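Sequence in, structure out. Go.
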Amino acid sequence: MLIGAAIAMLACTYLPGLVADFNGRFAKVPANDKDLHRPLLPTDRIEDEFAWQVERSVSQNLTLQYDTVLLLGTGMDTLRAAVEAVAAKQNAA
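Output:
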């Protein structure tokens, strides 16, 4: 336990130098100095802001594979509703 604490304390002493070195090599000056980020509202869910997104495509016969489920649709609205239903079912589980 003390070894871990000693390593953590040692890491903390090196961290400012590592951050400065990293920023010196990889930081970019913003194109606009104005901070255009909006603050998160109490109703905002940070999990939704950083959601994993995967691009999918619909085949010519209007099929879409989503999470090992093959969805058949008559139009994009049908496919979108089916994907939302599968996602809602997974979130409930």
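Check: The CA atoms of residues 13 and 79 lie 54 Å apart. The helical segments are 2-26, 46-49, 76-92.
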